[in-house]
Design goal:
single chain; about 270 residues; alpha+beta; outer membrane lipoprotein receptor (LolB), chain A; about 25% helix; globular
């Protein structure tokens, strides 16, 4: 890919730092089985979440990102599929209505990959048939919140830094029996233990993006240790962001093709 497509400074950096948040504001695992019966360390079960998802192969997913700042609250929703082995996902992200009630925003198509975020129908002067490519390690939050949909594998990799984990109890998510855990994720610890594809983005978030106090989370694991639901709470500037990811339909086809170089926008992103 040409250097002009990889640039992360200037207009791209400014655009990425604001991300969809600005748009929205303007508009069978033996260890897991043992833990289910009250044995073992609940933290160990949580820290193995990403490994369990990789073994699962793929799934369907839905996301919800709630942002609250200065008395204003908006929610961005997404739906798509994810291939955990290849670390690729495709989502359609829907922005909320603007204050005037206009719901004319077209869904934004996002491709999530190890190291990059691709966006189509982003607006901001980008032609409708072009993609914008952003390197996730260039983002201060590692794209945990910028894109409006947290990468499901990144959310699970973040749990490698789980501490202060408690077992809340047995519940049901999507008709499936799950074990509910609660704790705080240390991003620096997670980045050090993350897979190669996710390490750079988490390291960026650890170094620049979030408070050293950690990321509070709730995670719901099925009998195979797979996350059925993850909810993580971030503090970004003066905003509180709650990201929720639901995973279901494990094994569903998740073919994700990345754009060709000629389809990637190389111009300037308009300020919003």
């Amino acid at each position: 890919m040409g250097q002009q497509h990889r640039r992360t400074g200037g207009a791209f950096a400014a655009f990425a730092a604001v991300g969809l948040m600005a748009v929205a504001a303007g508009c069978s695992d033996s260890g897991a089985a043992a833990d289910a019966h009250g044995a073992g360390d609940p933290g160990d079960a949580v820290r193995r979440t990403a490994d369990s998802l990789v073994r699962a192969g793929s799934s369907k997913a839905s996301t919800s990102m709630e942002m609250a700042s200065g008395g204003t609250r908006v929610t961005i929703r997404g739906r798509g599929v994810y291939d955990f082995g290849r670390q690729r996902g495709r989502f359609e992200v829907v922005l909320p209505q603007d204050p005037a009630g206009d719901d004319g925003h077209r869904p934004i198509t996002e491709l999530l990959t190890a190291g990059a975020l691709y966006m189509k129908n982003r607006g901001a002067g980008v032609p409708a048939d072009k993609w914008v490519r952003i390197e996730t390690r260039s983002l201060s939050d590692g794209n945990l919140v910028t894109g409006g949909a947290t990468d499901p594998l990144a959310a699970a990799e973040l749990l490698r830094g789980a501490r202060e984990v408690t077992y809340v109890g047995d519940e049901r998510v999507g008709g499936v029996e799950v074990r509910h855990y609660r704790g705080v994720a240390d991003i620096r610890r997670a980045a050090a233990a993350a897979s190669a594809g996710q390490r750079g983005a988490l390291a960026a978030a650890a170094g620049k993006g979030f408070s050293r106090k950690g990321v509070p989370f709730d995670v719901y694991l099925d009998e195979r240790g797979r996350a059925r639901k993850m909810r993580q709470q971030f503090k970004v500037a003066d905003a509180n962001v709650a990201s929720t990811t639901l995973l279901y339909g494990f094994g569903a086809p998740a073919e994700v093709r990345l754009p060709a170089d000629k389809d990637i926008f190389a111009g300037k992103i308009a300020e919003q």
